[in-house]
Every structure is written in C-alpha cells, then in structure tokens.
Amino acid sequence: MEYRLCRNNLYQLLEFGFQIRWTTVKIGYYGYHFIPPQLTMGEICEFTAEEMMNKDCNDLVARLACAEGDKREFEEVLNRLVKDEDVSASIQLRKWRVLLLFRQLKKLSDDYTEGLVQLTEFWLSLGLPDDCPHIVQGRNNCLSPNQYYTKEVYTALKKKNENWLESEIADIIASEKRNMNTYK
C-alpha cells in the first residue's frame, strides 16, 4: 500500500490507520528508549484543537489544546490524560518505529552502498530490535563487505524492510482492534 507523506507526524500515524492515544502523543513528545522526540508542543496543540472539532472532548483535552504557551501546564495535562487511559505502551512505541522506518525508506539513497549504510545506521539507532528486518554485514553472518555491499543485497534488504513495514502496520492495527475494549 502506498501512503502519502504528511506534514505532522500525528497525521502520518493516522495515515497508516493507527489510533492516536495520549500515550502515543506522550512518547512522540518526550521520546522513549531509542525513539527520539518526534512532536513539538505546537504540533500536539494544533492536532488536539483540530480533533476537538471532530469529536466530543473533555475539559482536559480542551486545556491541552490551549496550553501551547505554558510548558508546565501542557506537560501536566498530557501526563494526566495518559494516566487516565489503559493502553499498551509497547504498541505505541511500535507505531513510532513504523513512522521512523517509513520516513527513512522515503529518503534512502539510490546508491546501494550509501543505502545499505543508511539502513544499517537507522536500525542501529533503534538498538537493533529482535524483530529487525535488516541484516548487518558481519553480525551473525559471514558476509564479506564485497558480498554485502551489492545492488542485489540492497534491493533485497530494502524490499524486506518495506514488507516488514506493511506487516508491522497490519499487526499494530489488528492488535488495537483486539484490545479495543481496553481503550474505552
């Protein structure tokens, strides 16, 4: 499936079909483990204000939408919203990993050597998670640099990462549907 590129990372997550939870927003704002911060206070306030027009919201959501000029108020309200929901933080982290890989794939070099380096650096920046679809030259394999840095390997690994992305998106959406009652 082809996804359009969105300006705000929260809208990008929606483009993938993900539900935006306050825990998702908090991780995007503060960062978590290997996920660096991905959202500004302004982006969150803008998104929250736009979403308020489409849904019924409570006073806390309204306060968050208007808190852009007050970091202390903003963080206090965001943390209260997160505290009031019951979601899987690991699923929310996976959403950000998807977004980061999607953006990385969009900007990969056409040069196969540079592209392999970019993919390797990307997965290293995320701590090489166990479910990582990437193969690092010399790590748990006997590939020499001459065997690894080829157009064929680059094409295969790029495709493997794209397939992993699609599978991860589908799995996250399915997990959220299974746990829908938990999110009420």
Describe this structure in words.
The protein has 184 residues and is an all-alpha fold. The chain contains nine helices and no strands. Helix 2 (22-30) packs across helix 5 (71-83), helix 4 runs antiparallel to helix 5 and helix 6 (89-106) packs antiparallel against helix 9. The longest helix is centred in the last third of the chain and has 28 residues, at 151-178.
Regions with little confidence, pLDDT below 50 for 5+ residues: none
Number of strands: 0
Mean pLDDT: 91
Structural class: mainly alpha
Secondary structure: helix percent: 55-70%
Through-space gap between termini = 29 Å
Largest beta-sheet details: none
Beta-strand residue percentage: under 5%
Q: State Rg.
A: 19 Å
Question: What form results from the Cα inertia axes?
Answer: elongated
Order of helices and strands: HHHHHHHHH
Question: Number of DSSP helices?
Answer: 9
List the helices and strands and how they pair.
Layout: H1 9-15, H2 22-30, H3 41-54, H4 59-65, H5 71-83, H6 89-106, H7 112-125, H8 145-148, H9 151-178
What is the gist of this entry?
The protein has helices spanning 9-15, 22-30, 41-54, 59-65, 71-83, 89-106, 112-125, 145-148, 151-178. The chain is mostly helical and 184 residues long. The longest helix has 28 residues, at 151-178.
